[in-house]
Design goal:
Structural class: mainly alpha
Helix content: over 70%
Distance between the termini: 49 Å
Shape: elongated
Strand content: under 5%
């Protein structure tokens, strides 16, 4: 009986962990896309200066290379908003997970 209870508890914990990871990834994706948008919308912005200011505060994720990738991701995925009304939430979520995985892999390789 204890083994069954432990299995049920472990399942709940694993589901919660999976949900947290997915949620964090979605928030990171939205943040990266927003940062890419802010940079794209700015005039005369220097990635070198942004890196100098942001990297010491927030870590290596704000290198010039990663900032450039945020811009690319914004430009590549900003049109995704026009598709989302035609999809169910579950389809949108699956697509978003794939985008997150792509971005995480891009950023982790740098």
């Amino acid at each position: 009986q204890n083994k069954e209870i432990i299995n049920q508890i472990e399942l709940v914990v694993k589901e919660a962990q999976s949900y947290v990871v997915s949620t964090v990834n979605i928030v990171l994706l939205k943040s990266y896309l927003k940062i890419g948008e802010i940079i794209c919308d700015s005039r005369n912005v220097s990635l070198r200066e942004l890196e100098r200011e942001l990297k010491p505060k927030y870590g290596d994720g704000f290198s010039r290379r990663n900032l450039s990738k945020m811009i690319i991701c914004f430009k590549d995925y900003k049109s995704g908003e026009t598709v989302s009304p035609h999809l169910s939430w579950s389809h949108y979520f699956l697509l978003l997970q794939q985008v997150v995985l792509s971005i995480v892999m891009i950023i982790s390789k740098s």
